[in-house]
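Following up on my earlier thread - several people asked me to post the actual chain instead of describing it. Fair enough. Here it is, all 375 residues.
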Amino acid sequence: MIELTLIRHADTQWEGPDGHVVHDPGLSPLGRDQAERVAAAATATAGSSDLVLWSSPALRARETMAPIAEMLDLEVQVLPWLRELEFPDGWTDHPTADFHDQFTTWNGRPLHEWWKGIPGGEPFTAFRERVGTGMDRSLGALGVNWQHAERWHVSTEQECRVLMVGHAGSCAMALSHLLGMEPTPWEHERFPKPVASISRVGARELGGTLVFSLHQFASTTHLTRDSDFKRLVRQRQQQTGESYATARATLRPQSGPAFDRVIPVLRIFDEGKAREFYVGYLGMTVDFEHRFEPDLPLYLQVSRGQLVLHLSEHHGDGTPGTTVHVATSQVRELHGELTAKNTAKARPGLVEDEIGTHFEVIDPFGNTLRFNERP
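Reply from S.P.:
Thanks for posting it. Predicted structure:
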């Protein structure tokens, strides 16, 4: 059996204390929780026999891989070819908001110019060569070799299973290479992978050669499972000395529905105003965004800690004027943070009554977020 599991790193703390982009950021608190969930899902049936772990050298990728390696008790091969497309020198010298604006400008270029990459950064032609050559070399070390006349060829009887953590671009480029697709400089758009998502490809023999097929793509179902289960397994391990697999089997939840978080879907009408309010004002992070076509409505997820919202331009997704009640700790600190931004259209008052200490902010589309700390 030949199988590769491709994981995009978990949610990242891109913004530093000074409001500028961090050069080599680690995971956010949400990302650390996602990494634990990824590990539980990726190792559920993996075992450690004949399994190889590959990681990008980026801190966010290595922190996503860390709980996987711990669960499986395996060493991680850190492979430079798995790093993301290189950005221009000095790109971390700018505020996060400016960086998002710059991305919008870059993405607005004619598609034929995308082969040049981001101005001042790594060309897509070099990126494609780096990932493709690196994949060939690393698989070749496991006995799986690329031969132009025969596609893929395996020269070993051993099973070959790889679990790798990379990035939106490098994972997409790897998928394209394995599936034998003609590369494009927008692979990350052809294979859009949300953070902490899992994809799998496997190979089967056809006509004396190997052909890879896509078994699973960008799955995030593991992010909605009860994260407390993994913690219970760890606690049982410490108490009994059992292996992770034995403790997990002992504590496996009974079958039946399980519910995690509720994610409100709020209607928006203007992408720029939505980003200004939810990212610039509330300090949330864009986790993923999607359009069926470039000129079709936007759907995106934003989060800050455990607060997760979906914002949609699609007709029928939510009604303007919706109110979302957000249970909050340290609500006074949050109120002070937002008030200090001195935004003319958002100066919330702090109220104390029988339901708690709370304040409300209204987005540009009439949706209300009510932050409340219970007495």
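The chain has a mean pLDDT of 83. That should answer part of your original question.
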